[in-house]
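Input C-alpha coordinates:
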Protein backbone atom coordinates (compact mmCIF):
# COMPACT_ATOMS: atom_id res chain seq x y z
CA UNK A 1 0.00 0.00 0.00
CA UNK A 2 1.00 3.61 -0.54
CA UNK A 3 -0.37 6.71 1.16
CA UNK A 4 -0.86 9.96 -0.75
CA UNK A 5 -1.96 13.38 0.47
CA UNK A 6 -4.44 15.00 -1.93
CA UNK A 7 -3.63 18.39 -0.43
CA UNK A 8 -7.30 18.94 0.34
CA UNK A 9 -7.82 20.25 3.86
CA UNK A 10 -10.95 21.77 5.32
CA UNK A 11 -11.35 22.89 8.93
CA UNK A 12 -10.04 20.00 11.03
CA UNK A 13 -9.98 17.37 8.28
CA UNK A 14 -7.48 16.11 5.75
CA UNK A 15 -8.14 13.98 2.65
CA UNK A 16 -5.79 11.11 1.87
CA UNK A 17 -5.63 8.34 -0.75
CA UNK A 18 -4.39 4.82 -0.12
CA UNK A 19 -3.21 2.92 -3.21
CA UNK A 20 -4.00 -0.78 -2.88
CA UNK A 21 -1.43 -2.65 -4.97
CA UNK A 22 -2.07 -5.69 -7.20
CA UNK A 23 -0.70 -8.33 -4.83
CA UNK A 24 -2.69 -6.90 -1.89
CA UNK A 25 -5.96 -6.83 -3.78
CA UNK A 26 -5.29 -10.31 -5.15
CA UNK A 27 -4.80 -11.64 -1.60
CA UNK A 28 -8.12 -10.06 -0.57
CA UNK A 29 -9.90 -11.55 -3.60
CA UNK A 30 -8.55 -14.99 -2.69
CA UNK A 31 -9.88 -14.59 0.86
CA UNK A 32 -13.27 -13.57 -0.52
CA UNK A 33 -13.28 -16.64 -2.80
CA UNK A 34 -12.47 -18.99 0.10
CA UNK A 35 -15.20 -17.40 2.21
CA UNK A 36 -17.92 -17.55 -0.46
CA UNK A 37 -17.18 -20.64 -2.58
CA UNK A 38 -19.50 -22.90 -0.56
CA UNK A 39 -22.46 -20.71 -1.55
CA UNK A 40 -21.79 -20.69 -5.30
CA UNK A 41 -23.17 -23.39 -7.60
CA UNK A 42 -21.12 -24.42 -10.67
CA UNK A 43 -22.37 -27.26 -12.93
CA UNK A 44 -20.16 -30.32 -12.69
CA UNK A 45 -18.72 -29.35 -9.28
CA UNK A 46 -19.89 -29.95 -5.76
CA UNK A 47 -20.42 -26.75 -3.79
CA UNK A 48 -17.15 -25.44 -2.48
CA UNK A 49 -15.05 -27.47 -4.95
CA UNK A 50 -15.17 -25.25 -8.04
CA UNK A 51 -11.87 -23.47 -8.83
CA UNK A 52 -11.88 -19.70 -8.51
CA UNK A 53 -11.08 -19.19 -12.21
CA UNK A 54 -14.05 -21.33 -13.20
CA UNK A 55 -16.39 -19.27 -10.97
CA UNK A 56 -15.00 -15.98 -12.30
CA UNK A 57 -15.40 -17.22 -15.90
CA UNK A 58 -19.01 -18.21 -15.27
CA UNK A 59 -20.15 -15.22 -13.16
CA UNK A 60 -17.71 -12.52 -14.22
CA UNK A 61 -14.30 -11.46 -12.91
CA UNK A 62 -15.85 -8.93 -10.50
CA UNK A 63 -17.80 -11.52 -8.51
CA UNK A 64 -15.41 -11.43 -5.55
CA UNK A 65 -14.27 -7.81 -5.84
CA UNK A 66 -16.92 -6.26 -3.59
CA UNK A 67 -16.27 -8.73 -0.77
CA UNK A 68 -12.52 -8.36 -1.33
CA UNK A 69 -12.74 -4.61 -0.84
CA UNK A 70 -14.78 -5.12 2.33
CA UNK A 71 -12.11 -7.56 3.44
CA UNK A 72 -9.22 -5.17 2.89
CA UNK A 73 -10.77 -1.89 4.06
CA UNK A 74 -9.94 -2.40 7.78
CA UNK A 75 -6.29 -2.90 6.80
CA UNK A 76 -6.44 0.23 4.66
CA UNK A 77 -7.82 2.33 7.52
CA UNK A 78 -5.25 1.00 9.99
CA UNK A 79 -2.46 1.66 7.49
CA UNK A 80 -3.65 5.24 6.89
CA UNK A 81 -3.76 6.07 10.60
CA UNK A 82 -0.33 4.52 11.19
CA UNK A 83 1.49 6.00 8.21
CA UNK A 84 -0.05 9.48 8.18
CA UNK A 85 2.26 12.32 9.22
CA UNK A 86 -0.72 14.17 10.65
CA UNK A 87 -1.83 14.09 14.26
CA UNK A 88 -5.26 12.57 13.74
CA UNK A 89 -8.16 11.56 15.96
CA UNK A 90 -11.03 9.10 15.64
CA UNK A 91 -11.43 6.66 12.79
CA UNK A 92 -11.00 7.48 9.08
CA UNK A 93 -14.14 8.01 6.99
CA UNK A 94 -14.11 6.38 3.54
CA UNK A 95 -15.50 8.69 0.84
CA UNK A 96 -14.65 6.74 -2.32
CA UNK A 97 -13.30 3.41 -3.54
CA UNK A 98 -12.04 3.53 -7.11
CA UNK A 99 -11.37 0.16 -8.74
CA UNK A 100 -8.98 0.60 -11.64
CA UNK A 101 -9.89 -0.61 -15.15
CA UNK A 102 -7.77 -3.75 -14.95
CA UNK A 103 -9.54 -4.71 -11.70
CA UNK A 104 -6.20 -5.50 -10.06
CA UNK A 105 -5.64 -2.20 -8.23
CA UNK A 106 -7.76 0.19 -6.21
CA UNK A 107 -7.63 3.68 -4.75
CA UNK A 108 -9.35 4.32 -1.43
CA UNK A 109 -10.07 7.97 -0.65
CA UNK A 110 -10.67 8.77 2.99
CA UNK A 111 -10.92 11.68 5.37
CA UNK A 112 -9.14 11.85 8.71
CA UNK A 113 -10.00 14.29 11.48
CA UNK A 114 -7.03 16.34 12.65
CA UNK A 115 -6.24 16.94 16.28
CA UNK A 116 -7.57 20.46 16.84
CA UNK A 117 -5.76 23.60 17.86
CA UNK A 118 -6.47 24.17 21.54
CA UNK A 119 -6.30 27.42 23.49
CA UNK A 120 -6.81 27.23 27.23
CA UNK A 121 -7.05 29.95 29.83
CA UNK A 122 -6.36 29.70 33.53
CA UNK A 123 -5.62 26.24 34.86
CA UNK A 124 -3.70 27.09 38.03
CA UNK A 125 -5.41 28.79 40.93
CA UNK A 126 -8.89 27.51 40.10
CA UNK A 127 -11.09 27.34 43.18
CA UNK A 128 -14.01 25.32 44.51
CA UNK A 129 -15.58 24.35 47.80
CA UNK A 130 -14.39 21.19 49.49
CA UNK A 131 -15.97 20.12 52.78
CA UNK A 132 -14.00 18.49 55.57
CA UNK A 133 -14.87 14.82 55.83
CA UNK A 134 -16.30 13.64 59.11
CA UNK A 135 -18.03 10.50 60.35
CA UNK A 136 -20.27 11.05 63.39
CA UNK A 137 -20.36 8.34 66.05
CA UNK A 138 -24.08 7.89 65.34
CA UNK A 139 -23.34 6.76 61.79
CA UNK A 140 -20.75 4.25 62.96
CA UNK A 141 -23.29 2.86 65.42
CA UNK A 142 -25.91 2.73 62.68
CA UNK A 143 -23.55 0.66 60.51
CA UNK A 144 -22.83 -1.67 63.43
CA UNK A 145 -26.58 -2.11 63.98
CA UNK A 146 -26.99 -3.00 60.32
CA UNK A 147 -24.35 -5.73 60.72
CA UNK A 148 -26.03 -6.94 63.92
CA UNK A 149 -29.39 -7.18 62.14
CA UNK A 150 -27.78 -9.08 59.28
CA UNK A 151 -26.37 -11.59 61.78
CA UNK A 152 -29.52 -11.92 63.85
CA UNK A 153 -31.09 -15.29 64.69
CA UNK A 154 -34.67 -15.77 63.56
CA UNK A 155 -36.96 -17.50 66.03
CA UNK A 156 -40.71 -18.21 66.05
CA UNK A 157 -42.62 -16.48 68.83
CA UNK A 158 -46.14 -16.90 70.22
CA UNK A 159 -47.24 -13.31 70.77
CA UNK A 160 -48.85 -10.43 68.83
CA UNK A 161 -46.77 -8.98 65.97
CA UNK A 162 -44.74 -5.83 66.54
CA UNK A 163 -42.52 -3.53 64.51
CA UNK A 164 -39.40 -5.34 63.29
CA UNK A 165 -40.98 -8.80 63.36
CA UNK A 166 -41.05 -11.08 60.33
CA UNK A 167 -44.66 -12.10 59.74
CA UNK A 168 -46.14 -14.81 57.54
CA UNK A 169 -49.51 -13.62 56.23
CA UNK A 170 -52.30 -14.41 53.78
CA UNK A 171 -53.85 -11.32 52.20
CA UNK A 172 -56.19 -10.24 49.44
CA UNK A 173 -57.07 -6.69 48.37
CA UNK A 174 -60.49 -5.42 47.24
CA UNK A 175 -61.48 -2.17 45.54
CA UNK A 176 -65.26 -1.56 45.58
CA UNK A 177 -65.64 -5.14 46.88
CA UNK A 178 -63.87 -6.51 43.79
CA UNK A 179 -60.52 -8.31 44.09
CA UNK A 180 -57.86 -6.68 41.91
CA UNK A 181 -55.05 -8.34 39.97
CA UNK A 182 -51.81 -8.73 41.90
CA UNK A 183 -53.46 -8.03 45.24
CA UNK A 184 -53.37 -11.55 46.68
CA UNK A 185 -50.71 -13.57 48.48
CA UNK A 186 -50.48 -16.69 50.62
CA UNK A 187 -47.85 -17.39 53.28
CA UNK A 188 -46.19 -14.13 52.28
CA UNK A 189 -43.14 -13.15 54.35
CA UNK A 190 -43.40 -9.51 55.41
CA UNK A 191 -41.03 -7.70 57.75
CA UNK A 192 -42.99 -5.04 59.61
CA UNK A 193 -41.42 -1.63 59.21
CA UNK A 194 -39.68 -2.51 55.93
CA UNK A 195 -42.03 -0.38 53.83
CA UNK A 196 -42.74 -3.15 51.33
CA UNK A 197 -46.49 -2.47 51.30
CA UNK A 198 -48.47 0.75 50.85
CA UNK A 199 -48.48 3.23 53.77
CA UNK A 200 -50.48 2.03 56.75
CA UNK A 201 -50.54 -1.67 55.86
CA UNK A 202 -47.66 -2.81 58.04
CA UNK A 203 -48.67 -0.55 60.93
CA UNK A 204 -52.15 -2.11 60.97
CA UNK A 205 -50.70 -5.64 61.02
CA UNK A 206 -48.90 -4.71 64.27
CA UNK A 207 -50.80 -6.05 67.29
CA UNK A 208 -52.41 -8.93 65.39
CA UNK A 209 -52.30 -12.31 67.12
CA UNK A 210 -51.37 -15.57 65.38
CA UNK A 211 -54.47 -16.91 63.61
CA UNK A 212 -56.25 -13.55 63.76
CA UNK A 213 -58.00 -12.16 60.67
CA UNK A 214 -58.35 -8.43 60.15
CA UNK A 215 -59.69 -6.02 57.48
CA UNK A 216 -57.29 -3.14 56.75
CA UNK A 217 -58.97 -0.02 55.35
CA UNK A 218 -56.37 1.90 53.35
CA UNK A 219 -55.96 4.24 50.38
CA UNK A 220 -53.52 3.74 47.50
CA UNK A 221 -51.00 6.60 47.09
CA UNK A 222 -51.68 9.13 44.33
CA UNK A 223 -48.46 8.11 42.59
CA UNK A 224 -49.43 4.42 42.51
CA UNK A 225 -50.11 2.69 39.20
CA UNK A 226 -52.82 4.40 37.19
CA UNK A 227 -55.79 2.07 37.69
CA UNK A 228 -55.41 2.07 41.48
CA UNK A 229 -53.94 5.49 42.29
CA UNK A 230 -55.82 7.28 45.06
CA UNK A 231 -58.48 4.57 45.43
CA UNK A 232 -59.79 3.19 48.71
CA UNK A 233 -58.86 -0.46 49.30
CA UNK A 234 -59.68 -3.13 51.86
CA UNK A 235 -57.05 -5.79 52.52
CA UNK A 236 -58.30 -8.94 54.21
CA UNK A 237 -55.33 -10.24 56.19
CA UNK A 238 -54.72 -13.39 58.23
CA UNK A 239 -51.60 -13.68 60.41
CA UNK A 240 -50.18 -17.21 60.23
CA UNK A 241 -46.85 -16.90 62.00
CA UNK A 242 -44.59 -14.41 63.80
CA UNK A 243 -40.80 -14.55 63.86
CA UNK A 244 -38.55 -12.39 65.97
CA UNK A 245 -35.02 -11.25 65.21
CA UNK A 246 -32.68 -12.02 68.09
CA UNK A 247 -29.74 -9.66 67.79
CA UNK A 248 -26.30 -10.79 68.96
CA UNK A 249 -24.87 -9.03 72.03
CA UNK A 250 -22.83 -5.98 71.14
CA UNK A 251 -19.50 -7.06 72.61
CA UNK A 252 -16.03 -8.25 71.70
CA UNK A 253 -17.35 -11.71 70.79
CA UNK A 254 -19.62 -10.11 68.21
CA UNK A 255 -16.64 -8.25 66.71
CA UNK A 256 -14.67 -11.52 66.49
CA UNK A 257 -17.58 -13.27 64.74
CA UNK A 258 -18.11 -10.63 62.04
CA UNK A 259 -14.57 -9.32 61.48
CA UNK A 260 -10.88 -10.03 61.86
CA UNK A 261 -10.68 -7.84 64.97
CA UNK A 262 -10.52 -9.01 68.58
CA UNK A 263 -12.41 -6.11 70.18
CA UNK A 264 -15.50 -4.07 69.42
CA UNK A 265 -13.51 -0.84 69.68
CA UNK A 266 -11.05 -2.04 67.03
CA UNK A 267 -13.93 -3.08 64.80
CA UNK A 268 -15.62 0.31 65.13
CA UNK A 269 -12.33 2.09 64.44
CA UNK A 270 -11.98 0.09 61.21
CA UNK A 271 -15.53 0.95 60.16
CA UNK A 272 -14.82 4.63 60.79
CA UNK A 273 -11.58 4.49 58.79
CA UNK A 274 -13.31 2.88 55.82
CA UNK A 275 -16.21 5.32 55.90
CA UNK A 276 -13.77 8.23 56.05
CA UNK A 277 -11.85 6.83 53.10
CA UNK A 278 -14.99 6.36 51.00
CA UNK A 279 -16.30 9.82 51.81
CA UNK A 280 -12.92 11.41 51.16
CA UNK A 281 -12.85 9.78 47.71
CA UNK A 282 -16.32 11.17 46.98
CA UNK A 283 -15.33 14.65 48.17
CA UNK A 284 -12.08 14.57 46.17
CA UNK A 285 -13.93 13.46 43.04
CA UNK A 286 -16.57 16.17 43.44
CA UNK A 287 -13.83 18.78 43.96
CA UNK A 288 -12.06 17.57 40.82
CA UNK A 289 -15.33 17.64 38.86
CA UNK A 290 -15.88 21.27 39.82
CA UNK A 291 -12.35 22.17 38.75
CA UNK A 292 -12.74 20.34 35.43
CA UNK A 293 -15.96 22.28 34.79
CA UNK A 294 -14.05 25.52 35.31
CA UNK A 295 -11.13 24.31 33.23
CA UNK A 296 -13.22 23.67 30.13
CA UNK A 297 -15.05 27.00 30.46
CA UNK A 298 -11.93 28.76 29.19
CA UNK A 299 -11.35 26.24 26.39
CA UNK A 300 -11.24 27.59 22.84
CA UNK A 301 -11.39 24.72 20.36
CA UNK A 302 -13.29 23.45 17.36
CA UNK A 303 -13.99 19.86 18.35
CA UNK A 304 -13.81 17.30 15.54
CA UNK A 305 -17.04 15.34 15.26
CA UNK A 306 -14.96 12.16 15.00
CA UNK A 307 -13.78 12.62 18.59
CA UNK A 308 -17.33 13.02 19.84
CA UNK A 309 -18.51 10.01 17.83
CA UNK A 310 -15.74 7.85 19.25
CA UNK A 311 -16.45 8.93 22.83
CA UNK A 312 -20.20 8.46 22.33
CA UNK A 313 -19.65 4.94 20.98
CA UNK A 314 -17.46 4.11 23.97
CA UNK A 315 -20.01 5.39 26.49
CA UNK A 316 -22.88 3.54 24.81
CA UNK A 317 -20.88 0.30 24.70
CA UNK A 318 -19.91 0.68 28.35
CA UNK A 319 -23.50 1.38 29.40
CA UNK A 320 -24.86 -1.52 27.35
CA UNK A 321 -22.33 -3.89 28.88
CA UNK A 322 -23.12 -2.72 32.40
CA UNK A 323 -26.91 -2.89 32.18
CA UNK A 324 -26.79 -6.23 30.36
CA UNK A 325 -25.14 -7.63 33.49
CA UNK A 326 -28.52 -7.01 35.14
CA UNK A 327 -30.42 -8.67 32.30
CA UNK A 328 -31.56 -5.39 30.77
CA UNK A 329 -31.44 -3.94 27.28
CA UNK A 330 -30.91 -0.22 26.45
CA UNK A 331 -34.59 0.17 25.49
CA UNK A 332 -35.69 -1.14 28.90
CA UNK A 333 -33.22 1.13 30.65
CA UNK A 334 -34.52 4.20 28.78
CA UNK A 335 -38.09 3.24 29.63
CA UNK A 336 -37.15 2.89 33.29
CA UNK A 337 -35.69 6.42 33.20
CA UNK A 338 -38.81 7.69 31.44
CA UNK A 339 -36.80 8.86 28.42
CA UNK A 340 -37.39 8.63 24.71
CA UNK A 341 -34.50 7.20 22.63
CA UNK A 342 -34.02 10.67 21.12
CA UNK A 343 -33.71 12.40 24.50
CA UNK A 344 -31.47 9.64 25.87
CA UNK A 345 -29.13 9.93 22.87
CA UNK A 346 -29.06 13.71 23.19
CA UNK A 347 -28.05 13.55 26.85
CA UNK A 348 -25.43 10.87 26.23
CA UNK A 349 -24.01 12.98 23.42
CA UNK A 350 -23.84 16.05 25.67
CA UNK A 351 -21.85 13.94 28.12
CA UNK A 352 -19.56 12.78 25.30
CA UNK A 353 -18.84 16.36 24.25
CA UNK A 354 -17.94 17.23 27.84
CA UNK A 355 -15.61 14.23 28.16
CA UNK A 356 -13.83 15.23 24.95
CA UNK A 357 -13.41 18.81 26.20
CA UNK A 358 -11.81 17.58 29.43
CA UNK A 359 -9.41 15.36 27.47
CA UNK A 360 -8.41 18.22 25.16
CA UNK A 361 -7.94 20.59 28.11
CA UNK A 362 -5.76 18.15 30.04
CA UNK A 363 -3.76 17.38 26.91
CA UNK A 364 -3.04 21.10 26.60
CA UNK A 365 -2.07 21.39 30.28
CA UNK A 366 0.34 18.48 29.82
CA UNK A 367 1.85 20.20 26.79
CA UNK A 368 2.23 23.60 28.47
CA UNK A 369 3.72 22.09 31.61
CA UNK A 370 5.97 19.77 29.61
CA UNK A 371 4.73 16.81 31.61
CA UNK A 372 6.77 13.68 30.96
CA UNK A 373 6.21 10.02 31.74
CA UNK A 374 9.21 7.89 32.62
CA UNK A 375 9.81 4.25 31.76
CA UNK A 376 9.58 3.54 35.49
CA UNK A 377 6.10 5.11 35.57
CA UNK A 378 4.93 2.88 32.73
CA UNK A 379 6.48 -0.27 34.18
CA UNK A 380 4.84 0.47 37.52
CA UNK A 381 1.45 0.77 35.79
CA UNK A 382 1.91 -2.60 34.08
CA UNK A 383 2.94 -4.18 37.37
CA UNK A 384 0.01 -2.65 39.25
CA UNK A 385 -2.50 -3.82 36.63
CA UNK A 386 -1.10 -7.34 36.63
CA UNK A 387 -1.50 -7.52 40.42
CA UNK A 388 -5.02 -6.07 40.44
CA UNK A 389 -6.33 -8.36 37.73
CA UNK A 390 -4.17 -11.36 38.60
CA UNK A 391 -2.89 -11.47 35.02
CA UNK A 392 0.52 -12.15 33.55
CA UNK A 393 2.26 -8.83 32.92
CA UNK A 394 3.13 -9.86 29.34
CA UNK A 395 -0.57 -10.38 28.62
CA UNK A 396 -1.26 -6.87 29.86
CA UNK A 397 1.46 -5.51 27.57
CA UNK A 398 -0.14 -7.23 24.57
CA UNK A 399 -3.32 -5.25 25.02
CA UNK A 400 -2.00 -1.88 26.20
CA UNK A 401 0.84 -0.29 24.26
CA UNK A 402 3.41 1.93 25.91
CA UNK A 403 2.10 4.82 23.79
CA UNK A 404 -1.40 4.32 25.18
CA UNK A 405 -0.13 4.20 28.75
CA UNK A 406 2.12 7.22 28.22
CA UNK A 407 -0.79 9.38 27.07
CA UNK A 408 -3.11 8.17 29.82
CA UNK A 409 -0.52 8.86 32.50
CA UNK A 410 0.08 12.35 31.08
CA UNK A 411 -3.63 13.12 31.39
CA UNK A 412 -3.71 11.86 34.95
CA UNK A 413 -0.62 13.89 35.88
CA UNK A 414 -2.16 16.98 34.26
CA UNK A 415 -5.35 16.52 36.29
CA UNK A 416 -3.32 16.09 39.45
CA UNK A 417 -1.43 19.32 38.68
CA UNK A 418 -4.71 21.23 38.27
CA UNK A 419 -6.03 19.85 41.58
CA UNK A 420 -2.81 20.47 43.52
CA UNK A 421 -2.68 24.08 42.33
CA UNK A 422 -6.32 24.77 43.12
CA UNK A 423 -7.64 26.91 45.98
CA UNK A 424 -10.03 25.30 48.44
CA UNK A 425 -12.87 27.71 49.22
CA UNK A 426 -14.59 27.83 52.59
CA UNK A 427 -17.38 25.28 52.51
CA UNK A 428 -20.88 26.71 52.92
CA UNK A 429 -23.89 24.56 53.68
CA UNK A 430 -26.59 24.84 51.03
CA UNK A 431 -29.80 26.61 51.96
CA UNK A 432 -33.06 24.67 51.85
CA UNK A 433 -33.80 26.22 48.43
CA UNK A 434 -30.40 25.19 47.10
CA UNK A 435 -30.95 21.62 48.24
CA UNK A 436 -33.93 21.17 45.94
CA UNK A 437 -33.21 18.56 43.22
CA UNK A 438 -31.78 20.04 40.06
CA UNK A 439 -32.24 18.62 36.59
CA UNK A 440 -29.01 17.44 35.02
CA UNK A 441 -28.22 16.62 31.44
CA UNK A 442 -25.00 14.71 31.80
CA UNK A 443 -23.14 12.61 34.30
CA UNK A 444 -20.30 14.36 36.12
CA UNK A 445 -17.00 14.29 34.31
CA UNK A 446 -13.74 13.33 35.96
CA UNK A 447 -10.27 13.47 34.52
CA UNK A 448 -10.06 9.72 34.96
CA UNK A 449 -13.08 9.24 32.71
CA UNK A 450 -11.59 11.58 30.15
CA UNK A 451 -8.87 9.00 29.59
CA UNK A 452 -11.43 6.35 28.64
CA UNK A 453 -12.15 6.43 24.93
CA UNK A 454 -12.53 3.04 23.33
CA UNK A 455 -15.23 0.39 23.73
CA UNK A 456 -14.38 -1.94 26.60
CA UNK A 457 -13.85 -5.30 24.99
CA UNK A 458 -11.60 -7.87 26.71
CA UNK A 459 -8.45 -6.18 25.48
CA UNK A 460 -9.58 -2.73 26.53
CA UNK A 461 -10.36 -3.91 30.06
CA UNK A 462 -6.69 -4.72 30.56
CA UNK A 463 -5.71 -1.44 28.96
CA UNK A 464 -7.95 0.50 31.33
CA UNK A 465 -6.53 -1.45 34.22
CA UNK A 466 -3.14 0.00 33.40
CA UNK A 467 -4.56 3.50 32.94
CA UNK A 468 -6.00 3.61 36.44
CA UNK A 469 -8.66 2.04 38.62
CA UNK A 470 -11.30 -0.08 36.90
CA UNK A 471 -14.21 2.08 35.85
CA UNK A 472 -17.13 2.39 38.22
CA UNK A 473 -20.47 0.93 37.31
CA UNK A 474 -22.94 3.52 36.09
CA UNK A 475 -25.81 4.01 38.38
Amino acid sequence: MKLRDTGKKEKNEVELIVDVETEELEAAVQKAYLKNRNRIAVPGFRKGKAPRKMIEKMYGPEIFISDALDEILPEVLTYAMKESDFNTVGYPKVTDVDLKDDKTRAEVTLILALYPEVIIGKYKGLSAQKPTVEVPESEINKEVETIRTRNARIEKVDRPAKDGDITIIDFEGFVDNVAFEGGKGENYELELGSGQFIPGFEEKVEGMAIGEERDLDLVFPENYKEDLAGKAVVFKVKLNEVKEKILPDLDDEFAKDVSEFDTLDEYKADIKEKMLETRQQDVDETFENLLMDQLIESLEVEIPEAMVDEQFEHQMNTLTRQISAYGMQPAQYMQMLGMTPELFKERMRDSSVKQVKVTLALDKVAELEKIEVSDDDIDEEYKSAAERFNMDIEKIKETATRADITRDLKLRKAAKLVVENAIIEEFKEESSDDKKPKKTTAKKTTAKKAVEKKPADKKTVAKKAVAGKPEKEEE
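The radius of gyration is 32 Å. The chain has three domains: 2-114, 153-246, 301-467.
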